[in-house]
Write a structure and sequence with these properties.
Blueprint lengths: L1 H42 L4 H19 L4 H16 L1 H10 L15 H49 L1
Helix pairs in contact: 2-5, 3-5, 4-5
Subcellular location: Endomembrane system; Nucleus membrane
GO cellular component, one term: nuclear membrane
Pfam families: TMEM18
Length: 162
């Protein structure tokens, strides 16, 4: 029994070492990505238009959450969010031409990274939330439909027995 306990403790120590090494490697490996992420947001001059854009996305998220029971509205909202993502390239081109009228520096590069992060990213996140909600609603509807079908079959079989 002592041998079993010793082997178990040795195994647990090995597992703890492996988990510790893995977490240390993940921290070291993800540190440059974290530094770039933080650097990106420190490099931005948070003018009122950017704060307004973030507020706009928060309002859209709240609308998506509040209207989660209204599937028709959600589908229109979903399509509008995806249309916003689709039009991001055109929006980036227009904003790149007119950035002096509202911003202190030109954030709108030809590849559209800035707009992808601050415009398309939140819209895609909201679209994913709407899509998951729609799938959950669809599953619930399928369950209700199957229950109704089983009740109908049970009534029909009772009618035949009488």
């Amino acid at each position: 029994m002592e041998d079993l306990k010793a082997a178990m403790n040795e195994h647990m120590d090995q597992m703890a070492d492996l988990v510790e090494k893995l977490s240390a490697e993940l921290r070291v490996g993800l540190q440059p990505a974290y530094d770039n992420f933080i650097g990106f947001f420190h490099a931005i001059d948070w003018k009122p238009w950017l704060i307004g854009l973030m507020s706009f996305h928060v309002v859209l998220l709240l609308v998506a959450i509040i209207t989660r029971r209204n599937i028709n509205f959600q589908m229109c909202f979903f399509l509008m969010a995806l249309a916003g993502v689709y039009l991001a390239e055109n929006i980036n081109a227009v904003l790149a031409k007119n950035w002096r009228s509202f911003a202190g520096q030109n954030y709108f590069d030809p590849h559209g990274l800035f707009l992808s992060v601050l415009w398309s990213g939140p819209l895609i996140l909201i679209s994913i939330i709407i899509l998951v909600n729609s799938l959950i609603s669809l599953c619930y509807l399928i369950v209700r439909w199957k229950k109704a079908e089983l009740r109908h079959r049970a009534r029909a079989s009772r009618g035949k027995q009488d």
